[in-house]
Amino acid sequence: MPLFNLFKKETKKLEPKRNNIQLAMPIFNSGTSYQLDKVIDHLKSFWGLDVTDIGGDDEAASFNINDETIALANMQVQIPWGDIEGTAQYAYNWPSALKDLTGHTGHAIVVITTEKRNPLERFTILSKVLGSILITSDAIGVYQGNQSLLIPRQQYLNHLEELKETGVAVALWIYIGLRKLAKGNCAYTYGLKDFQKTEIEIIDSRFGLEELFDFLYNITSYIIGTNVTLKNGETIGLTAEQKIPIKLSKAQFVDGESLKLEL
């Protein structure tokens, strides 16, 4: 089956599932899309990547980076509006997402289809490919349904600088949810499972939402960057003096169990 037709058939199957396939969708207006040769050239010149086994064209293509196979497809249709609406209601980082995306004319599908590297390396490759697409086109943002992320263009590009400097860009891979409840403020991760880690929740905290975000962002960056696994009964902190208890229990904001940080 031609690659482009395969993408048409399989996209709806892939997107909702939490699995080891890295999948993202750059979003376009005005009938435009990526240009394969520009994306490849940028991956080589900007990121210094060795891109091999290049095949296909602007409609559908595949290539290899560090033993991982990346597939691209140009889809001149909107992302299903129900998916956009479902994610946009939590996208506090893009308050105007529904307005900005109402008239989008198409999207690309970017998939890492093999699994020879660890999750951090695979997500890094995904972000570099997405960054090269954004920089060489007029894409207006990125949708990552598996991580419940909608990220506007400039915000995505800004976080690429963080990726270059530190090797980790949590905002491009993990959704940090924030809730204000009667008993206190809450924060949680959605996407750590894709790094083979347990999701984290902070429930009914006295700290402000911004403080909770910063704390969880830093803790998540540490977990991903060092590949550490938090365990029930241990403690964690951002300083030597800070010892926050960790407890494993049924999750409140995500599926299954989560590690609760008593902050």
Describe this protein's structure.
The N terminus is likely disordered. The protein is 32% helix and 29% strand. It has seven helices and 13 strands. With 263 residues, the chain is an alpha+beta fold.
Summarize the structure in short.
With 263 residues, the chain is an alpha+beta fold. Helices cover 32% and strands 29% of the residues. The radius of gyration is 19 Å and the shape is globular.
Low-confidence stretches: 1-18
| Proper CATH architecture of the largest domain | 2-Layer Sandwich
Structural class: alpha+beta
- Tertiary shape: globular
Task: Give the strand tally.
Answer: 13
**Terminal-residue CA separation:** 53 Å
Strand residue percentage:
25-35%
Number of domain modules: 2
Describe how the helices and strands are arranged.
Layout: H1 3-14, E1 22-28, H2 36-45, E2 51-56, E3 60-65, E4 68-75, H3 81-88, H4 97-101, E5 106-112, H5 119-135, E6 141-144, E7 149-152, H6 153-166, E8 175-181, E9 184-190, E10 200-205, H7 209-226, E11 235-236, E12 244-250, E13 257-261
Parallel strand pairs: 10-13
Antiparallel strand pairs: 1-5, 1-6, 2-3, 3-4, 4-5, 6-7, 8-9, 9-10, 11-12, 12-13
Helix pairs in contact: 2-5, 5-6
What key attributes describe this structure?
disordered N terminus; alpha+beta; Cell Division Protein Zipa, Chain: A; 263 residues; seven-stranded antiparallel β-sheet; 13 strands
